[in-house]
Fold this sequence. Notes:
The chain is an all-alpha fold. The protein contains 8 helices and no strands.
Amino acid sequence: MNLGLVIFDPIxxxxxxxxxxxxxALALAAVAxxxxxxxxxxxxxxxxxxIYIFLIGVGFTALGLWIGRALTQSAPAPKFxxxxxxxxxxxxxxxxxxxxxxxxxxxxxxxxxxxxxxxPNTVKTHVSRLxxxxxxxxxxxxxxxxxxxxxxx
Length: 153
């Protein structure tokens, strides 16, 4: 049921940079109001310099944390879904897929062999077959193409 009410939403009407400017202006207005309210001249005589240094430090710490969080917010990564159809169409076996995942983690052939409990020569064979199946010539290309095909994260 629509009652025809209009709700004032100052943050919703601004986007991106304008929102940040609005929030900074709001914070500045709040600080100015607080300083007026507590009669700044009285406090400068009543309290020592150390308290002011502490309050300024706390203020800058809070501001830094807020800015850091605002700048580093990221959207959650989309859930990974393995492309089974591509695995079957390329003919990639489970063992080759395991080798490909280890390659994506930056493991050497020797490290992959130790982790998968096979010989380094077996890993080399799997890697060369992966190169053929993915139609690439280098490890980096293989990993990139596998990511594009959603075979690995």
